[in-house]
Design goal:
Protein name: Glycosyl hydrolases family 28
GO molecular function: polygalacturonase activity
Helix content: under 10%
Pfam family, one: Glyco_hydro_28
Distance between the termini: 74 Å
Keywords: Carbohydrate metabolism, Glycoprotein, Glycosidase, Hydrolase, Polysaccharide degradation, Repeat
InterPro entries: Glyco_hydro_28, Pectin_lyas_fold, Pectin_lyase_fold/virulence
Number of strands: 41
Largest sheet: 22 strands, mixed
CATH superfamily of the largest domain: Single-stranded right-handed beta-helix, Pectin lyase-like
Shape: globular
Strand content: over 45%
Number of helices: 3
CATH architecture of the largest domain: 3 Solenoid
Structural class: mainly beta
Length: about 475
Amino acid sequence: MKQKFLITTVVALLAFIGMALTKKSDVIIYPAPAGEKISEAYTVSVNRENVPVYIAKVAPLDKKLRYKAMDDKLNSAKFFDEAAFAYFDLNGTAQVSVKAPVQIKEVKILPSSYQIKHEVRGGVITFPIKTGQQVTVEINGEIIKSLHIFANEIEKDKPSTNDPNVIFYGPGVHEISRLIVKDNQTLYLAGGAILRTVIGDKEQTTNVPTSGLHNKPYPPSISLVGKNIKVRGRGIIDGSACPTHSRNMIMVQGSDISIEGIILRDASLWTLPVRMSHNVHINNIKLIGYRANSDGVDICNSTDILVEKCFIRTLDDLVVIKSLKNKGVTERITVRKCVLWNEVAHALSIGAEINGDIKDILFTDCDVIHDLGREWSLRVYHCDAGKVSNIRFENLRIEESKKFISLWINKAVWSTDAERGHIDNISFKNISVAGSPVTVELLGYGAENKVNKVDFKNITLNGTKLTKDIIKQNDFVTNVTVK
């Protein structure tokens, strides 16, 4: 009997140890590299293990300064505040604790659709987080200096450092001026790695900028040119050393390309343009920027593109689709399950450059947690000659907006075509929005350049259903239905 009891006890003890080890391995935390300045605004732990908290420059709350950052491009980098972010890998659910050097009176955790419940005890905020969630914590109504927490999936099948087709950056700070990733190659950034992009000495002598800006920007810091290319990992690409308007961070031009898991911080120009490409998957990137024209993801003249499960907070357009002249078609693009923070321009949009046709676009299942912009949350901004058709905005949750929806054809500073185009067959379905005021406009250009066939179904403004009398439209809009 004693022997049986002893065996049972040992088995139980081993099972407990096994469970403890499994539970501990369910969270992977990556130490910050030496030399990286860490935020003093927050202390974060997950399952009682400390997590590094990084600093990210973001647009200021004062809208005059935000707009100045966009319009005064020469001095754009001078107008910013600082937010913070932390990241780790997780399998399942974990408990997060957040401390801040203030008396905590109010806490908001976004997006609201996560329905995360929190507690505050002894100056510590605690709440559960699940794999894949991208959470923003706001304390005492402070939205700008907020804390972003990214709970990645645990990586599988990490590439080998010995693989000749892998460009590998391990933990630590690395510096590059120009990197071209070609056919069948993988660029891998390990957790705890920071890849700083700079302007190289040779570039400085051959392409010296005038007046602080670049009429002809430098080539992208990283180019993905070819087929079957991957960028993946948990590290950070940082563009803060590149002068404003100097270069894109990552440029995609090819086919069968994937970008997954990494963090993109402080691009000096469009962060992630996708040009003349096919079959591109952008998954679980976290993108934070604050400078003039630091767009998030720009999809131009490309087909079969999927952008999903991303967090984007930046000064200019977040996800935007364009079709430049004589560069190929733009069609079959899906943007889904993203968390978005719009600072000045558009959250989800098409245009302004629409010289060629754009069709079969779906924006779905996204959360816009803030929209502080002077432009629009959802827009087709058409000032050229192409045709925009079969566009769907569906299952969207917009927690803050004033300028909600715009379908617009006219001339603008971006126009390069003599003629104007068309907007046809646009659908808005299952969308909720909050704000004051919340505006909707449909504006065609002329009898030959109409906004035609626009369907609204189950659109809620501050808890009230959209009705036709709320929509501002001119004489060049036809076939509008509201259900």
